[in-house]
Amino acid sequence: MSDTTHTGPVLAADGTPLKRSLRRALRAQKLRALALIAPLLIFVLLTFIAPIADMLFRSVENQIVGRTLPMTVEELRDWDGEGTPADSVYRALYFDLFLAAEGKEHTKLGSRLNYEESGISSMFRTTGRDVDNIGKVYQKAIEKVNPAFGEGAFWYDMMSGGQGAEGNETLLSNQIGRLEGLESKTFKGDIGFVPGAEIYKILPNATRAYTAFAAFTVFMDEDVVAEEDPWEAVYPALLLDLREPATMAALAGYQGPGAQELRDLAAQADTLPPVDLKAALVESNEDWLRTEYWEVIKTYSPPYTTGYFLNAIDMEKTTDGIALRADDERIYGILFKRTMFMSMVITFSCIALGYPVAWIMSNLPARSANLLMILVLLPFWTSLLVRTSAWKIMLQQQGVINDVLVWLGLVADESRLVMINNQFGTIVAMTHILLPFMILPMYSVMQTIPQTYLRAAKSLGANNWTAFWRVYFPQSVPGIGAGSILVFILAIGYYITPEIVGGTTGTFISNRIAYHISTSLNWGLGAALGSILLAVVMVLYYAYDKIVGIDNVKLG
Amino acid sequence: MANTGNNDAFVAFERVQKSYDGETLVVKDLNLSLPKGEFLTMLGPSGSGKTTCLMMLAGFETATHGEIKLDGISINNIPPHKRGIGMVFQNYALFPHMTIAENLSFPLEVRKIGKSDREAKVKRALEMVEMGAFGGRRPAQLSGGQQQRVALARALVFEPELVLMDEPLGALDKQLREKMQFEITHLAHELGITTVYVTHDQTEALTMSDRVAVFNDGRIQQLAPPDELYESPQNSFVAQFIGENNTLAGTVQEIKDGLALVKLDNGDVIDATPVNVEKAGDRTLISIRPERVEFNRDRLSPDAHTLKAEVAEFIYMGDIFRTRLKVAGRDDFIIKTRNAPDQRRLKPGEMIEIGWLAEDCRALDAT
To answer: Locate the ABC transmembrane type-1 domain: which residues (chain A) (predicted)?
Structure first.
């Protein structure tokens, strides 16, 4: 401590500030401590914190729509939700879907949207198969007019605007970025093609479609752009551009490669089939006319959505806002309530069964207490699966307990008790499995309560019950608290036991989460359910801290 | 020493035996009675059975045989909470989850005493031990001495006629212990409470008690007021356990006129008062207090027997001098002299003659 006359920082003997020399002195110690915890810290970060963060992210993440159908989403923004969207939406959809189908990403989007409205998946799948054929009609018509339009080199020259022409780097990087979004990868390097700036102004759709093709050819097919014939989508795009009245005028003054061919083609544009992509898509699958499907696409177009969470609490997004699902479609609310209720029942059964055991153990001499402790820990020596299966054998209708009851004549043979594949079975099996987690903290707390307190209470005139209830019990509450938190939190996320003995009425929310993770593959919904579970546990923990105080929890 | 069948006895142990394992007796044939208002201390080494006796009286242990009576009524079968005996425990046993006031209120609540009555009694009891300002605190917030006071107040708040204390001052430092010794005796006498106090600290026993029961090996060795216990120990255990004591082994040569002539093992002869030796030829341990040994020949009677001694060590202790001597083949003979102006300070190596008055030297059993 510095004396009062000294105002500056306290100095060490050699004149350096004391704080700094203290830090230096402790540094080696701190580093060693850090090195010791580092393996665990890294392990926890990788296997615990990171997955939780990922889960939280997945529960709101919805970038697939925007990444797969970027132009469609853009065009759809102005749609009012009545009837079908404008033709421009279908047009954008065609080009989006074409690229997605080439990358085989459209089915993923289909399954994603299918979670919200069943049937969408097959719509994407069938149309994804047809996009090539839709384009092929225009390709054939154009090639008939001028076969040059079927050659890769010709297209390459035309679209790059010839040697030394000014390029549109923005368009290029946009298209590469779009491909990156679609494939969830990063692409680096020169693709050997830059769309011409001038040609883009004249033929925006065709240039964009060709640039997308160029990027896809280089990065996905790993080919050379100039040597490949363009894919079908560029033909309807070119036709769309040529049908624009302004295009003729712009072409008139254009000097770049293929200018003449384009002018000739434009002159004959009227003889080519009309570009009606809406009709083509609808022909492929009539569902593209269904308003509710378009509503789903529009609703889920933002990159982040509350949709998973709404689903997880039995609500849904509609164009009118958020609404509760129909009665018969609500399942998660029931499951959450059941999970909470059963976890509480299990916790209370564990307290009721564990307290006397912990009490006896803490009052026995060390030798006998150790023996009892081994018995308490015995269940840990057998696999969880074995223990649960054992309960199945015990509780089933032809099982041990029913046999004994029938043999004793307490239950008629034809009306054997149903004790498994329901809530009862789950509660019994889980109470048994979680009991040690209750007994251990209670025991360690009770061990620290000296018997003299009870004697003191009795000497003061309290009978056995009063002495227990007023003096012993309040001191054992921290143990009950610790055990309850442990058991409740373990129970609320339990999976294997309810899965095996729970049947349909005894399953927990975790079983549903597992279903979504491994069977329906709706990870977003699984993540949302998991996040809610995590939130519930944290809220309960907070409440417990407020009511009982976490300082009062003792594990030993 | 055995005053059984005393009708005035408030607390009485009658032929009480206690065994935990059915093989050995921890308490062997205990007979003890104490009148109302007495402060009795049970003193003894650990394992001597004193705490067991206290626990039997409190009701936490059952007597294997015999009867324990309280106010003339056998309490063997009365559970502890109905005995109405106040008790102070070794580690106070204040309930940690209750405030001081709640701790004190507890015995009143279980007796279903009304709230206002309760509060008044709690307040009075706390003031009695000068802890009036601490009612709202928790035990953990108090010092050891304060907890001790509260424990005492709690044992007294329901006005029991008998209070038991099980080494209540064991955890306190020396100064505080001495202060509390005084306060406890003072309170007990003021309130007229009968007190049974257990300790292994002989100073505590001597300073506090009306009578002390010295326990050893499950029996009361001597039951007497402190001065009698110190000055007239009945056997060599008591002599050695209470206070500092020099012992010399020898054989009784003759007993005459209440005086015993003892021949020590090295052949010297010395005078002693016979206590529990009966005839010439008995082996004996003679016992003499260090402060009663005299080395100034002028102060001894002319015909007194003396022993030759060599000074081994001189220790200056402020108020007294403590000198270790080599006497009769032993080198642990201690004498204490008062630090007075004319007092001689002995030097190591010096040869002196020591002796004592026959009544200060007691010839006890040789065990």
So the answer is: 336-544
Long-range contacts: A511-519, Cβ < 8 Å, 24+? A512/A331, A512/A332, A512/A335
User: CA dist A99 to A128, A180, A234, B365, Å?
Assistant: 10, 12, 11, 115
Interface with chain A: mutation pick from B21, B52, B87, B113, highest number of A CBs within 10 Å: B87
Q: How many CA atoms lie within 13 A of A69 on its CB side?
A: 30
Query: A331: Cβ–Cβ under 8 A, 6 or more apart, which residues?
Result: A314, A512
Residue B258 belongs to domain spanning = 244-364
Chain B environment of A475 (Cβ under 8 Å): 95-97
B214 and B283 share one domain: no
Interface with B, mutate which of A449, A459, A473 (most B CBs under 10 A):
A459
CA distance B82 to chain A (A): 6
Would you call A275 an interface residue with chain B, using a CB distance cutoff of 8 Å?
Answer: no
pTM value?
0.77
CATH superfamily assigned to domain A332-552: MetI-like (1.10.3720.10)
Question: How far away is chain B from the Cα of A450, in angstroms, using its nearest Cα?
Answer: 8
In this prediction the ipTM stands at 0.83
Question: Tens place of pLDDT for every residue, chain A, 556 residues?
Answer: 444 455 667 777 777 888 888 888 889 889 999 999 999 999 999 999 999 999 889 899 888 898 899 999 998 888 888 888 988 899 999 999 999 999 888 999 998 898 888 889 999 999 999 999 999 989 999 988 888 888 888 899 888 887 778 888 889 899 999 898 888 888 888 888 889 888 898 899 999 999 999 999 999 888 888 888 898 999 999 988 888 888 888 888 888 888 888 888 888 888 888 888 899 999 999 999 998 899 888 888 888 888 889 888 888 877 677 888 888 888 899 999 999 999 999 999 999 999 999 999 998 888 999 999 898 888 888 888 898 888 988 888 888 899 999 999 888 888 888 888 889 999 999 999 999 999 999 998 998 898 889 999 999 999 999 999 999 999 998 889 889 988 998 999 898 899 988 888 888 999 999 999 899 888 899 999 999 999 988 998 888 888 777 776 665 5
Closest chain A residue to B163, measured at CA: A459
- Number of domains within chain B: 2
Distance from CA of A438 to the nearest CA of B (A): 22
Question: B140 and B171 share a domain?
Answer: yes
Tell me if B81 and A456 make a contact (CB, 8 A cut-off): no
